[in-house]
Design brief:
The chain has 12 helices and 14 strands. By secondary structure, the chain is α/β, with parallel strands linked by helices. It folds into 2 domains: 136 residues, NAD(P)-binding Rossmann-like Domain (Rossmann fold, 3-Layer(aba) Sandwich), CATH 3.40.50; 175 residues, Dihydrodipicolinate Reductase, domain 2. The strands form 2 sheets. Strands 13-12-11-7-10-9-8-14 form an 8-stranded mixed sheet. Helix 10 packs across helix 12. The chain is globular and about 55 Å long. The protein starts with a strand and ends with a strand. The structure holds nicotinamide-adenine-dinucleotide (NAD).
Length: 328
């Protein structure tokens, strides 16, 4: 099989993903698509590929194997279902969608088409997180007891006003948790396993938005471990995001600076033997390997749905006086 052809739809964050495709061996950027013609043309010229404003043009293009959807979150379902039903593989940016029901429609389309559905959680490929997954799967941290996901960033009111979709329930699916902290929520769920209950609280403390600029949650995992989530866009600057997990024998702390591995006395040499869970550096590499050789996706649609399920539960709990929400 020759190079895998990609089309990128939505050219805000999509511009950086288009560049990544041009830099990835085995991938070829065939086209870029945006409703805004000026933007599509500018990016098409920059990357030397076709540009379009109508999704159908890319859906009917035989050179396109994979379509990468980077439009506002509440549109992912409609576009991904069209892509899959047209017989092409799909990648959706995060979050997969704004509700679990809409994720399920995407999963149904994936099943009926037999095509691949991948969700772009790029932090899973970072060295420390790939190693943390391997360490946990191979028992290096012992029995997991606690995981913390945190993000303290700054976003001004202009950010929320631009585009008219951010900070809305319908299109952003929430606020600081759904848009920014979702990467840490995904990592927490990936590393700690399925949740049993979620208790949440949200507030809008410094922005005029209908969703939250600050959210906190407590998770009880099926394993018996406990987790916390804290995410906000009210911090004075955007320099802090972190994940900490620990078990009976060791801990991993990744707070954006140098990650730390901590082991119980006598087990310190475990730090040297930790391997990566997967060899890919990013979603594009993973997708190329999946289309070419049937390699497993590091984040498929079921994995993508899992963090939306947590998000929806945080909001449901918050609306219901912070009563715990049970997840089946
Ligand atoms: N690190 C990350 O993984 C990351 C970072 C930022 C944003 N995102 C995600 O990317 C998505 C877009 O966010 P953004 O900040 O780039 O938004 P944006 O508003 O800057 O850009 C979205 C673009 O999509 C275009 N668009 C909208 N509907 C379309 C359609 N039906 N067909 C073609 N084009 C369409 C718009 O014209 C716009 O140019 C969101 O889901 C967001 O959560 C992911």
């Amino acid at each position: 099989m020759g190079e895998i052809g990609f089309s990128v739809v939505g050219l805000g964050m999509g511009a950086s993903r288009a560049r990544l495709i041009t830099e990835t061996e085995g991938a070829r950027l065939v086209s870029v698509v945006d409703l805004r013609e000026d933007l599509a043309e500018k990016m098409g010229r920059e990357f030397g590929c076709r540009w379009q404003t109508d999704l159908d043009d890319a859906l009917n293009d035989d050179e396109v194997d994979v379509m990468f959807i980077l439009t506002p979150s509440g549109t992912h379902c409609d576009l991904v279902v069209r892509v899959l039903d047209a017989g092409k593989h799909a990648i959706s940016t995060k979050p997969m969608e704004v509700t679990v029901d809409r994720c399920d429609l995407m999963l149904e389309a994936q099943q009926r088409s037999g095509k691949l559905l991948c969700i772009d959680f790029e932090r899973r490929f970072e060295d420390v997180h790939s190693k943390a997954k391997w360490a946990i799967e191979n028992g290096r941290l012992g029995r997991l007891m606690m995981g913390e996901a945190r993000l303290k960033w700054f976003r001004d009111q202009e950010y929320y006003d631009a585009g008219g979709w951010r900070g809305t329930w319908k299109m952003d699916g929430g606020g600081a948790l759904a848009n920014q902290t979702i990467h840490e929520i995904d990592l927490l769920r990936w590393l700690m396993g399925p949740p049993r209950t979620v208790t949440g609280r949200i507030a809008a403390l410094n922005h005029k938005i209908e969703t939250e600029d600050l959210g906190v949650a407590i998770i009880e995992f099926e394993s018996g471990a406990v987790g916390t989530i804290l995410g906000t866009t009210t911090f004075p600057v955007s320099d802090y995001q972190g994940l900490e997990v620990h078990g009976t024998e060791g801990a991993m702390i990744s707070t954006g600076e140098e990650p730390r591995w901590i082991f119980s006395p006598g087990l310190e040499d475990r730090a040297e033997s930790i391997e990566r869970f997967a060899p890919y550096e990013n979603t594009i590499q993973n997708m190329v390997a999946a289309v070419r050789d049937g390699a497993p996706l590091i984040c498929d649609g079921h994995e993508g749905r899992a963090s939306v399920q947590i998000l929806n539960a945080v909001y449901e709990s918050a609306r219901d006086g912070s009563k715990p929400v049970k997840l089946g």
